[in-house]
Design brief:
Blueprint (H helix, E strand, L loop, with lengths): L10 E10 L6 E8 L3 H7 L5 E9 L3 H8 L5 E7 H7 L5 E4 L2 E6 L4 H7 L1 H13 L2 E5 L2 H20 L8 H8 L4 E7 L2 E11 L2 E9 L5 H4 L2 H15 L4 E7 L6 H6 L5 E4 L8 E6 L6 H8 L2 E5 L2 E7 L8 H11 L7 E5 L13 E5 H4 L15
Parallel strand pairs: 2-4, 10-11, 15-16, 16-17
Antiparallel strand pairs: 1-2, 1-3, 4-13, 5-13, 6-11, 6-12, 7-8, 8-9, 9-10, 14-15
Length: 380
């Protein structure tokens, strides 16, 4: 109770947003509460939505207001602390983390890993051909260089007005607690860097940066080579796990897709920005705007003690064995408890369903909310 009392007077912002859908351009409405759900906003709307109505309510009255307004919305997104969500929110939902961590088992036999991991082999080969080099630094001046010339401009260039930049003082505190900067150099010039930490037999890559935020360096292999160097250093130090940091909670996210070539599993993101927040998604009708959203932005969500993914097969694609296999091959990721796919029709004859995949007929769930997915999704 001592923990809860300070929050009883907290007034939660609630806003009803209207704008064109990212895919079809049709008009859609999002009911948002709590912190601004940037990930959902960026993928649900094609442009900045218009706020039709906004208010603030005490957290203990939030559920009542959501119930009153939800009939006007296609999708409801409540971004709030997980503990407060358990205490004050009710009803079926899909609980989406702000970020999800990818980690890999450090290969003990590097040569065998190189031979058997076809997707990673190209990155390893490119690093060797380009003669990238890596070294580590605990110099205070290097920290300021990394923050000002690498980390800050890289995050700003990548996320634009939605960038969430960790304050310098917070990263400096962590840096002084034993972290290091891993530099990637070419011909003596620093091209990329990452703040890293070794805890026992775990090697953590926390935040990356490219020199002056230059995105062309990514195409030249700077970031991929930084990952390769981190794996090699983790192996040299005798670490068994390499934690590669957070990605947005979607199988469609480019950073998540890149890390998936190395990934062994997924874990909770101990974020410097995200803290203990989750985004609870709910809807009254899955067909239409919500299904369209899920077709181009799959969501990774909490499920039991791990993570599962929910994705809608695009209606514009013919539902054939070949297309289903191809789309699954593009999106599959190790570490998922289940990969649930909403199908606009029947399962194609001859399709062999992988063990982790659960095929859900849209016709069985299209006219209701997350409660109709109860037979397929069981939240932790």
């Amino acid at each position: 109770m001592r923990f809860v009392l300070p929050f009883l007077g907290w007034r939660v912002p609630v806003v009803l947003l209207r704008g064109p859908a990212r895919g079809s351009g049709r008009e859609v409405v999002l009911l948002s509460a709590g912190a601004k759900p940037d990930f959902i906003l960026a993928h649900f709307f094609a442009q900045e939505p218009v706020a039709e109505r906004r208010t603030r309510v005490p957290v203990w009255r939030l559920q009542r207001l959501l119930d009153e307004w939800r009939a006007e919305a296609d999708l409801v997104a409540v971004q709030i602390d997980r503990i407060l969500a358990r205490l004050f929110l009710s009803g079926p939902h899909v609980s989406v983390p702000l970020w999800v961590d990818s980690w890999m088992q450090v290969p003990q036999d590097w040569q065998s890993f190189y031979r058997t991991n076809e997707r990673a082999r190209a990155d390893i080969r490119r690093m060797r051909i380009k003669h990238f080099e890596s070294h580590f630094s605990r110099d205070e001046a290097d920290f300021d260089l990394f923050y000002e010339r690498f980390y800050q401009p890289y995050i700003q260039a990548r996320h634009q007005d939605r960038a969430e930049i960790v304050p310098r003082w917070r990263l400096r505190v962590l840096f002084k607690q034993g972290m290091q900067i891993q530099w990637l150099c070419l011909g003596g010039e620093k091209l990329a860097g990452c703040i890293v930490q070794v805890e026992g037999r775990r090697f953590h890559s926390l935040v990356n940066g490219l020199r002056d935020g230059r995105q062309e360096l990514k195409k030249e292999g700077a970031l991929s080579s930084l990952y390769v160097c981190a794996i090699m250093e983790a192996h040299r130090l005798g670490c068994t796990e390499l934690h590669m940091g957070g990605s947005l909670p979607s199988l469609h996210d480019g950073v998540f897709r890149y890390k998936s070539k190395w990934t062994t599993g997924l874990s909770h993101h101990e974020g410097l920005v995200s803290g203990n927040l989750v985004t609870q998604l709910s809807w009254q009708r899955l067909a239409g705007p919500v299904a369209e959203f899920l077709s181009h932005t799959s969501v990774i969500h909490h499920d039991h003690s791990g993570y599962s993914a929910l994705w809608a097969f695009p209606v514009e694609l013919p539902l054939t064995v070949e297309n289903l296999q191809q789309q699954y091959g593009l999106l599959k990721a190790r570490g998922l408890h289940r990969f649930r796919i909403l199908l606009p029709g029947g399962v194609p004859v001859g399709y062999v369903c992988p063990d982790e995949v659960c095929l859900i007929p849209m016709s069985a769930v299209e006219h209701g909310g997350p409660d109709l997915l109860a037979a397929y999704i069981h939240e932790a």
